[in-house]
Amino acid sequence: MDILIPTILTIITAATPLLFAALGELITEKSGVLNLGVEGMILAGAVCGFAAVHFSGSASFGVVAGAAAGALLSLIFAALVLGFQASQVATGLALTIFGVGLSALIGQDLVGVAYDGLPKVAIPFLSDLPLIGEVFFKHDVLVYVSLLMVPLVWWFLTYSRAGLVLRAVGDSHDAAHAMGYPVVRIRLFAILFGGAMSGIAGAYLSLAYSPMWIENMSAGRGWIALALVVFATWRPWRVLLGAYLFGGISILQLHAQAMGIGIPSQVMSMLPYLVTILVLVLISRDQNKIKLNSPACIGKPFHPTS
Amino acid sequence: MFKLVKRPEPSRQMVLVSPLLALLLTLLAGIILFLFMGVSPTEALYAFFVEPLTSLYGWAELGVKATPLVLIAVTLSVGFRAGIWNIGAEGQLTLGGICGGAVALLFYEVESVWVIPLMVLAGIAGGMFWAAIPAFLRTRFNANEILTSLMLTYVAGLLLSLLVHGVMRDPDGYNFPESRLFSDSALLPIILEGTRLHVGWLMALAVVVAAWIMMARTLIGFEVKVLGQAPAAGRYAGFSQRNIIWFSLLLSGGAAGLAGMIEVSGPIGQVLPTISPGYGFTAIIVAFVGRLHPVGVLLAGLLLALSYLGGESAQISLNLPLAVTGVFQGMLLFFLLACDVLIHYQIVRKTGPVSAIADQDTTQATTNTATESK
Questions:
Q1: Quick one: signal sequence residues (chain B) (predicted)?
Q2: Chain B residue whose CA is closest to A298
Q3: Rounded to a whole number, what is the distance in Å from the CA of A298 to chain B's nearest CA?
Q4: pLDDT tens, B97-151?
Q5: Which CATH architecture has domain A4-293?
């Protein structure tokens, strides 16, 4: 029990940023847009969120700043992809390269600055429950928000009118356009949502997961989030499952070290990346599964012709 | 308002104008950035783009920095043309550095002319091996090569760290995570006295020429181009997508591995926990700015190499953070992607008669988008 509780707690903190970023990317991809810039947007969110808290002292302002930074970066992506008809793959890569550089530039004076971390919010009554209360009801707000986003995104995509239109745009932009839906505007919102969610994921990293700013601190989580969306075959509940699975794997090294298992830390750190590859292979092996679930228009440019 | 109208044919001039326009816009954005940072733009731009080239040593350094960029970008371009996205060149470079470095350390203090060729082979093999993994996973299991090659980059970095902290560590190095300094027989010969310019630069130039010939004159080059532009036509002609995936990944992996070996055997001279400031990623920008053409890539490689030198020089003379380089590189790619719209589209005023022309173009545009979006 002494080990179990901290383990579960760290899994939750490791999974939360992945959950945010992957849910955001899920919506973007459902609209037919592949944004490979998640890593860059996470870094922008991380550094801006941290800077905002450092200068204002307000944690909520930090989260908002992180979301805004991610959304702002995704706006550049949207302008290039939707306005200038640029290749989504190339633009996404550019966004990541730019985000890495920009965040390092913004954060140069923030390296080594300390922060206590987001305040924990204990949910009344429930948090007093023995064991369960400790594990599930004493987290920072963002953990609850991330968990609430899962049913919300699921409901949005499955039952809401706007969600159905979004999926229609992702599956056939020409048909959606012919029916009079504003394809470009819908994709713009989907991209911005993805950006904001990645930004929050970044803010979570620099404000809660390891409350400080380090260059490149996302360490590939943006790419893992992208893989998670494929792993989840574009379904929100499976994103939740995947995020917690990966959260579990990525904290293994901490606990392996604590328990004195003699595997070099580098080998343990490789695990999340190797498991990502393994999971991708397992899912992609079945081409029909991918074809059935992936948005049909993903990655394709849309140029309204009339 | 303005409106994009599809050109009947892609504009050849714009293919060449676009990178220049993008460079100009990057410089303008750079001026704004410097003003924002409270630095005199003239001083900063001088430090960035002129100062590094005021000496012969500077010019030689340009070649040193351009070597890995050109080597990787030329071969990445081949894959990009065929729609194969090897994003993990950085990891393949790392493996090349590890394997080349391992040979150098195994033959420590062995005086033989065969050490360098052996290191070259080991470096290429290491990079190829690392690129073969995404190629295998893509052709066998249909796993997206962008994600797998990128994940392997992180694994390669950790592997390098593991080795440098372990078996490759200098036994007399006071536990610093560094290998021994290579003996002379494992160091690349210098081709310009008094500088660090090494024979790797000549290898890069040779690869440029070879790639040019390959793309322009050989069947495999033709297959790459056809499968990239019109996959259906390529399949109908019997060209194998699978072969092209293997070919382009092994080619760029091998070149990246060679670049990694050149880095450890040339400018670095030992194995360190980090052997590249992101050459594998910057090479992606080089490939696009160079229009996926070997000669263009050579010029773009020199330009991006200058951005590394400029970043260092601006750090020394103006105390600017090194991260400015990355921002510049990212901006250049953004502007390039934006300017590239001019290749396929014309920007016209949205007025009465123009929309009539646009309507005429409708059928044309739909067919074009259909072919483009493979």
A1: none
A2: B373
A3: 10
A4: 999 999 999 998 888 889 999 999 999 999 999 999 999 999 999 898 988 999 9
A5: Orthogonal Bundle (1.10)
